[in-house]
Specification:
By secondary structure, the chain is mainly α. Helix content is 55%, strand content 0%. The protein folds into three domains: 67 residues, no CATH class; 41 residues, no CATH class; 133 residues, no CATH class.
């Protein structure tokens, strides 16, 4: 409020949206208009970054054959929506039975029928599948590499056991070294994810690239995989007789 709105002449370029009048506004030559309400800005397009101010004119000032009429009602559920649609159809017929009612549907039906909405949902589901597969491959790969590295140390473990080391001390040594490297890798991965999230965030709509659940769950899964990969082979190696372990290559 407290702002002035000026309708530019037809030969003058309209101001930018959000700073006066909506670009491309047309109507009659009447300069004086009565303001009947003030509404907040909205995102006209799906990927708009911020709400944009709009100026709404009566539909009689500019007829559009592809126009739509939106009615907001409160209904108790799908049954109530069907009843409202039937009532609206009757009221339109009562005004003029020659008016064709071609598409009368709820907002959810309109949203579900939108091709753009389907593309966005399909893309989100596809990226979800890619994310799950990536985490699975990372867990399996980390387990395989860690298990191989620890298994290669079976002879070393046998030497330590022969020199008097206890199974607990050997397990703790293997876990400490393995989890230390894993922790450093996870820290680097989290920092890299934060940097990539800044870039990917511009391509997301109403979704934060810094989901706390994702940033907590992925490192935990990888840490558990590393723990199992270090513990199980080391535990098997400590149960082998030192003489047998020394003969392993």
């Amino acid at each position: 409020m407290g702002q002035q709105i000026r309708k530019p002449p037809r030969d003058e370029a309209a101001p930018v949206q959000g700073h006066g009048v909506v670009s491309g506004m047309q109507g009659d030559d009447q300069d004086a208009m009565e303001v009947v309400g003030v509404v907040a800005g909205l995102r006209h397009d799906m990927f708009d970054k911020a709400p944009v101010s709009h100026l709404y004119l009566p539909s009689g000032r500019q007829f559009k054959s592809n126009g739509h009429i939106h009615a907001r009602v409160d209904t108790p559920g799908p049954a109530g929506e069907a009843a409202v649609l039937q009532a609206m159809r009757r009221e339109i017929r009562a005004v003029d039975d020659r008016l064709p009612v071609l598409a009368l549907r709820t907002l959810s039906e309109h949203r579900d029928a939108s091709i753009l909405n389907w593309v966005v949902r399909a893309g989100a589901q596809l990226f979800t599948v890619f994310g799950v597969v990536a985490v699975f491959l990372a867990v399996v790969g980390l387990y395989a590499v860690k298990a191989y590295v620890v298994a290669r140390r079976t002879r070393e473990i046998g030497i330590r056991m022969a020199l008097g080391s206890t199974p607990r001390s050997v397990l703790w040594l293997v876990l400490k070294e393995g989890l230390g490297l894993t922790g450093a890798g996870l820290a680097a991965g989290v920092l890299l994810s934060l940097g990539v999230g800044q870039v990917v965030g511009s391509m997301l709509y109403e979704v934060s690239p810094f989901d706390p659940l994702v940033f907590a769950l992925a490192p935990v899964l990888l840490a558990l995989a590393a723990l199992a990969a270090c513990y199980l082979p080391a535990r098997r190696a400590t149960r082998i007789a030192p003489v047998v372990a020394l003969r392993m290559e």
